[in-house]
User: Which sequence fits this backbone?
């Protein structure tokens, strides 16, 4: 029996952009070009110089487009490393305040022994500014490091970052922003946004997997304790030879993501209207959200079964916190929003840059059928934040 | 048709998936994650054990979708905790029945229906035979691997939906040959042993961790309450057992055996082997796979995982059934009492504790650790 290479995946409708975006052809071209260069960017010879030139070109793009200084753009292997590098560098000597709904990269990345405090969110999934201020105002021997994501990966909900930044400035806190889901989907600016540091990831913009960046505030090169020293690359802040093809692909994807405007909102709104009419609730609907993300809960129907059904019908979506084993657990994000049972009944639909209207329409029709066929459930009382 | 195959990562369920695929069915694989199979790890970390990886490798090789189902919490509450609680009540539980009944044939089967499957298949060694009144449950061809006793609680509705393709296999070697024919990496994988969720130490350690009040040494007493010896922990003793009694194994020339366990007092009660005699017992949570006549029926009952069934008469009662044995035996509270007619399972239930009467202490039987 010959193994089938993709179990039909080639025909699948891909609506899981927040897991990873399809590779942009322009990014693939940039990767291919970079992969043709033999040199190591750290080498002194001609081939090394060519590689270095391409690397610095990519750095200039990423720094400029995200409002950082050229000297403070540290390339990493991706979003997780960028977040962990920031935590590793800025947590010592600070108390660490982490939002309840942060990604595991941050939640699990807080160094052991750090003074960790959780920041609660409201029913919409937005950080409670009153509690944040209370925490920051509390006299403490250590200054604060505040870690919040600009846009939530499961719900697309945006924290009120302008207010957060103002509070952090007032109380002398370092604000680290996890911009992995935000970059390319909304305006992100390091200095103008009041961030001390920002993490981003290439493959969430339509670049390749394997590259990310940590941007540090300030005009002069900012020192940062590296996770691994290696040969002192990235000005001693990230050892190891840079993954030039991935980095070049990320830079090209970033430009294209920022220069083109996908019209996600009308597609998303139509999907949500149909889903709600069929009995679904949209998690975090009352808050500002990314235009590409819908977190849809069907009372009485477990997320696992929904995912499998949709997958078998050729639709790629996900539930909030599928871990690397592939099992679907209840979502910590939705639990933090007080959604209790619904936390295990929600799937995430996230539209990629390449989405077509008919993809969303086909998905909507299937989803409505799935919702109509469910049994049980009935009236489940839920906290706010739903429509 | 679309069939959900419950895949454990072992050779049996892998062969089931491969055969169904070969027969032209749309196979969907699912593996339950029941417990964390690794050493304690950082909270929130993922925990795919080798079995899950094996199941996935088989699915990838054969080219059908495979899913990992998180059943950890439900397994803990419905199987492991109930297992430990039963010991604390002086019973000897059969956790495999609880698992088949709950996590597998209720939850996973429900999921199979949710995804539009028309059947669910497992690698159990048992036969499902289409009879005049619907599906019947029978012992498998290979008596060595008979798992029917562990499946008595399967309801008729569940049985209609289930398929057991290995029930006709002559022996395990044939299953392994099938696995080799399909080129499955798990062809040579050893059979699982004992209780799957006891990953380190023995079940005794696990129960003692959950019920520390039962841990520790205690007294061995005779039916009159005279202390005749010491033991290292009540969980190691079950009704009918003669091992671990030390000098008390033989008293006044008579071979002794455990006739009861009192976990609360950490006491093991013994009596002469020759006096073993229970001829009537009550079973609870009875599942009937036939329409039981009110006057009862003659059949054979099997009260342990491995024993020759005994002739008996079973009469339904409002809360279970009454079993009248032809010859006296030592039934073990908590164990299954399964009713057979030939190879067919008619029904079954769990053996109730006898009410203490006179010097009769509550009894508990030898633990059957055969996995099912």
Assistant:
């Amino acid at each position: 029996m010959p193994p089938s290479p993709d179990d039909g995946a080639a025909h699948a409708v891909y609506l899981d952009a927040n897991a990873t975006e399809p590779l942009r052809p322009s990014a693939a071209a940039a990767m291919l070009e970079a992969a043709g260069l033999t040199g190591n960017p750290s080498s002194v010879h001609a081939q090394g110089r060519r590689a270095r030139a391409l690397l610095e070109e990519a750095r200039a793009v990423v720094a400029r487009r995200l409002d950082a200084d050229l000297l403070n753009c540290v390339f990493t292997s991706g979003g997780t490393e960028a977040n962990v590098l920031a935590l590793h560098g800025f947590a010592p000597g600070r108390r660490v305040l982490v939002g309840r709904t942060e990604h595991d990269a941050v939640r699990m990345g807080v160094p052991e022994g750090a003074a960790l405090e959780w920041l609660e969110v409201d029913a919409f999934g937005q950080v409670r500014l009153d509690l944040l201020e209370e925490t920051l105002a509390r006299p403490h021997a250590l200054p604060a490091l505040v870690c919040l994501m600009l846009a939530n990966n499961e719900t697309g909900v945006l924290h009120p970052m302008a207010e957060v930044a103002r509070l952090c400035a007032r109380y002398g806190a370092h604000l680290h922003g996890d911009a992995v889901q935000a970059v390319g989907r909304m305006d992100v600016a390091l200095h103008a946004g009041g961030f001390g540091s920002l993490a981003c990831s290439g493959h969430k913009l339509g670049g390749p997997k394997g590259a990310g960046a940590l941007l540090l505030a300030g005009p002069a090169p900012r020192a940062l304790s590296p996770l691994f020293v290696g040969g002192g690359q990235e000005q001693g802040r990230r050892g190891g030879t840079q993954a030039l093809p991935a980095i070049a692909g990320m830079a090209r994807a970033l430009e294209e993501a920022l220069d083109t405007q996908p019209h996600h909102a009308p597609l998303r709104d139509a999907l949500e209207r149909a889903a709600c009419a069929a009995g679904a609730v949209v998690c975090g609907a009352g808050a500002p959200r990314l235009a590409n993300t819908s977190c849809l809960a069907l009372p009485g129907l477990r997320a696992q079964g929904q995912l499998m059904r949709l997958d078998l019908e050729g639709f790629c979506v996900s539930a909030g916190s599928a871990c690397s084993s592939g099992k679907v657990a209840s979502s910590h994000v939705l639990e933090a929003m007080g959604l209790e049972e619904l936390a295990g009944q929600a799937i995430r639909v996230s539209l990629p840059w390449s989405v077509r209207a008919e993809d969303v329409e086909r998905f909507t029709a299937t989803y409505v059928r799935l919702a109509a066929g469910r049994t049980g459930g009935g009236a489940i009382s839920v906290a706010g934040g739903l429509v | 048709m679309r069939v959900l195959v419950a895949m454990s990562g072992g050779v049996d369920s892998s062969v089931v998936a491969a055969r169904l695929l070969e027969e032209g069915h749309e196979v969907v694989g699912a593996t339950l994650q029941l417990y964390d199979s690794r050493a304690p790890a950082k909270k929130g970390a993922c925990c795919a054990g080798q079995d899950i990886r094996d199941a996935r490798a088989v699915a990838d090789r054969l080219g059908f979708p495979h899913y990992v189902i998180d059943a950890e919490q439900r397994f803990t509450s419905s199987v492991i905790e109930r297992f430990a609680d039963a010991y604390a009540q002086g019973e000897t539980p059969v956790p495999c029945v609880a698992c088949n009944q709950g996590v597998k044939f209720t939850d996973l089967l429900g999921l199979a229906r949710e995804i539009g499957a028309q059947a669910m298949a497992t690698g159990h060694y048992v036969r499902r035979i289409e009879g005049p009144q619907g599906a019947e449950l029978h012992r498998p061809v290979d008596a060595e691997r008979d798992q029917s006793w562990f499946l008595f609680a399967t309801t008729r509705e569940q049985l209609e939906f289930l398929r057991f393709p290995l029930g006709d296999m002559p022996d395990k070697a044939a299953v392994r040959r099938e696995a080799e024919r399909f080129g499955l990496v798990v062809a040579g994988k050893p059979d699982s042993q004992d209780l799957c969720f006891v990953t380190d130490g023995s079940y005794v350690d696990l129960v003692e961790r959950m019920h520390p009040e039962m841990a520790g040494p205690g007294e061995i007493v005779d039916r009159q309450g005279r202390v005749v010896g010491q033991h290292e922990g009540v969980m190691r003793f079950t009704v009918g057992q003669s091992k671990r009694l030390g000098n008390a194994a033989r008293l006044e020339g008579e071979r002794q055996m455990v006739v009861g366990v009192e976990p609360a007092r950490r006491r093991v009660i013994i009596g002469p082997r020759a006096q073993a005699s229970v001829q009537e017992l009550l079973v609870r949570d009875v599942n009937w796979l036939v329409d039981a006549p009110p006057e009862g029926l003659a059949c054979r009952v099997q009260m342990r995982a491995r024993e020759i069934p005994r002739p008996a008469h079973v009469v339904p009662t409002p809360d279970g059934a009454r079993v009248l044995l032809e010859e006296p035996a030592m039934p073990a509270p908590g164990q299954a009492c399964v009713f057979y007619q030939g190879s067919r399972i008619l029904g079954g239930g769990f053996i109730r504790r006898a009410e203490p009467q006179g010097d009769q202490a509550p009894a508990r039987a030898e633990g059957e650790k055969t996995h099912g």
Remarks:
- Residues 39-47, 356-370 of chain B have pLDDT under 50 and may be disordered.
- The helical segments of chain B are 11-22, 50-62, 72-88, 95-114, 156-161, 172-181, 203-210.
